Amino acid sequence: MNAIRIAFSEFIGLFVDDGNLALLVVVLIATVTLLVKFAHLPPLDGGGLLLLGCILVLVESLVRAARKKG
Amino acid sequence: MTSITAITSTVTAAFLGSFVEAVEAFTIVLAVGLSRSWRPALQGAGLALAALAALIVGLGPLLGLIPIHLLQYGIGVLLTLFGIRWLRKAILRAGGHIPLHDELKSFAKETDLLKRQASDRRADFLAGLAAFKAVLLEGIEVVFIVIAVGAGNGMLPYAGIGATAACVAVLAIGLAVHRPLAQVPENTLKFVVGVLLTSFGIFWTGEGLGTPWPGADLAIPAIMVILLAASLLSVRILRGARATAFEGDLP
């Protein structure tokens, strides 16, 4: 059981380091998906939004980390 | 999508990503081999490789059962999360906000731990376990990178070639120098790989959503350039902020 828990946390660790960053990326992708699938946002605009959103989310995480470290 | 651009970016991403992981695994196996003995080091590493092979053989065929758009979307999401995590850490390291990863330090830490376990009657088992864990964990990341950059566009063989070449290169260099590969510019590699994997992630997520990327697979290098520019600018700003903070601390 312990080994499974360790393996699971290692697997999650592959994708999640800064929890906030991961959460914002997931929220961004989910929002773009909903906009494209249900609000008729053109898929190309959705792709552009994904790229721009990822950059903004990354910058937000960097600013937060830099402030924390001083 | 089998253009030269797609093949080159797939092989490069798989090679560089796997190279970084192989260096980290090699450091631990070398520490076990030199500080304990080569038998548990090779047994641990061999068992981990067998487990990885079983994982590939077991799960590989399942990929073919997933509809391509769903596969691209799922891989895209995971790859974006995986790549952006690497990129964030590499930018913070390049900006001087967190220390660089040091292979010599990892080697010394592992060697120290193994020496403290030397009197334990399970010392060989613990040493083998350390090698097993290192190769398995880093190997899973290599397998993920290969699947992630290759499965969405039917380029698994090219991704596999890139990853295999990286592992062989690390092994060959490691056997030649017989010490941790501390001279490898690991953060630069992680920076580049972070940009590559995040770009692939955004591209595949978009493909999964039906995005008609301009230029088809040529959009991948275009996304890379935009992401690279934003990342380099971030490093510059972080360095500037750090220098300003440092000057402010001076009497």
The rounded distance between the terminal residues' Cα atoms of chain A is: 40 Å
Quote the average pLDDT of chain B. Answer: 87
| Most strands sheet of chain B | none
Report mean pLDDT of chain A, rounded to a whole number.
Answer: 88
Q: Could you describe the largest sheet of chain A, including whether it forms a barrel?
A: none
Helicity of chain B, as a percent range: over 70%
- Distance between the terminal alpha carbons of chain B, to the nearest Å? 60 Å
The number of distinct structural domains of chain B comes to: 1
Oligomer: heterodimer
Shape of chain B: flat
Query: Which regions of chain B have little confidence, pLDDT < 50, spanning 5+ residues?
Result: none
Cα-atom Rg of chain A, whole angstroms?
16 Å
Please specify the SSE layout and strand pairing:
The complex is a heterodimer of chains A (70) and B (251).
Chain A: H1 2-15, H2 19-38, H3 43-69
Helix pairs in contact in A: 2-3
Chain B: H1 4-35, H2 38-63, H3 68-94, H4 103-116, H5 123-150, H6 156-177, H7 186-209, H8 219-249
Helix pairs in contact in B: 1-2, 1-4, 1-5, 1-6, 1-7, 2-5, 3-5, 3-7, 3-8, 5-6, 7-8
